[in-house]
Specification:
The protein is mainly alpha-helical. Helices cover 67% and strands 0% of the residues. It has three domains: 129 residues, no CATH class; 86 residues, no CATH class; 44 residues. The protein has 13 helices and no strands.
């Protein structure tokens, strides 16, 4: 009974609407992404029963190269046949989309960041692509209303406002709220009314001269978004695998760099606060501590701590002094 209802729904919403090529594109998209993620996780674990990377002559060929081949085959085949075999070429195009977007971070950064924190952008790109394809397949109409008659202008105004609120929400750094707001209009309005995230473009444009609002945004980021990011990280680890952990010396170097930047900024702010009028009040030979000297001291100290972290501690016992003959006895 359930299979008959599913078949009837598929026939009514997909076949009769002429959306089977788009449906096969979505199936190829999701299937290729799940397959390649399973493959790279097996390769990462080093299991013997799964083939490894393709490295002819020592050259590692990424799966984005094969994805480009599928994309070209699907696109060229569609134009060459005049759309006669859309089902086959739609499936090929979807497979190419999954393979290419899975390495979106590598293409963006032009370096192999697949198993780093930056590689999470690939998962974001894949989810966004699947969401957009799903909306196109379902033929979603916002608010569930078909424009016509007297409701056309009112619905157009509501959709325009909703689009504006979604853009503002995205500028505030709330990616998923802005994307889901295109489906649920009230959600994007709530996201646009709330504070933006501290590292978003909206915060850089609007909160730079409002320290209180920036402080509120930072507190909210620490309190609320940390939990959401934790749940998002758990979900992405489940789907795509956990990224590599940063080495301890890299973490120490990053902390030193942050401390150096903060100290240089404080030095420059103090110099600007004194102004040219106070410079004449200083002694002739007095100088402010140069930030570069302080930076070099911190960096050298961090390097010494990193180098000597794994060495055994030396003994500080005094060395025995050799006995010398007394000149009077001689």
């Amino acid at each position: 009974m359930i299979w008959q209802e599913l078949a009837h729904s598929y026939r009514h919403h997909v076949l009769d609407q002429g959306k089977q090529p788009l449906m096969l594109l979505l199936v190829g998209f999701i299937g290729s992404f799940l397959f390649i993620r399973f493959s790279v996780r097996m390769i990462r674990r080093g299991v013997r029963w799964w083939p490894g990377n393709i490295t002819p002559g020592g050259l590692h060929i990424h799966h984005a190269v094969f994805g480009l081949g599928f994309l070209l085959a699907g696109g060229f085949g569609t134009f060459a046949t005049g759309g006669a075999h859309l089902n086959v070429f739609g499936l090929l195009f979807g497979i190419g989309c999954g393979l290419v977007l899975d390495e979106f971070a590598l293409i963006l950064h032009l370096e192999d960041v697949y198993w780093s924190e930056q590689g999470r952008k690939s998962v974001d790109a894949v989810i966004i692509g699947i969401l957009i394809t799903g909306l196109m397949l379902t033929g979603y109409v916002p608010l569930g209303v078909v424009p016509g008659g007297s409701t056309r202008w009112g619905l157009s105004a509501v959709l325009s406002v909703n689009a504006l609120m979604s853009v503002i929400t995205l500028l505030k750094g709330k990616l998923w709220t802005g994307l889901l707001g295109t489906i649920v209009p009230g959600l994007s309005w709530v996201g646009a009314a709330r504070l933006g995230r501290p590292h978003s473009p909206w915060a850089r444009w609007r909160y730079r001269r409002r320290p209180r609002r920036m402080a509120r945004a930072v507190r909210r980021e620490r309190r609320l978004h940390r939990r959401a990011d934790r749940a998002r990280t758990w979900l992405f680890d489940l789907i795509a695998g956990a990224p590599d952990k940063v080495a301890p010396h890299h973490t120490a170097t990053r902390r030193v760099a942050e401390r150096m930047a903060a100290r240089v900024t404080a030095h420059l702010d103090a110099a600007d606060a004194r102004g040219p009028a106070r410079r004449t009040d200083r002694a002739p030979g007095a100088r402010l501590p140069h930030p570069v000297v302080t930076v070099r001291r911190d960096l050298s100290a961090a390097r010494r701590r990193t180098i000597t972290a794994g060495r055994p501690r030396r003994s500080h016992r005094p060395r025995p002094t050799p006995c010398r003959p007394d000149p009077e006895e001689a």
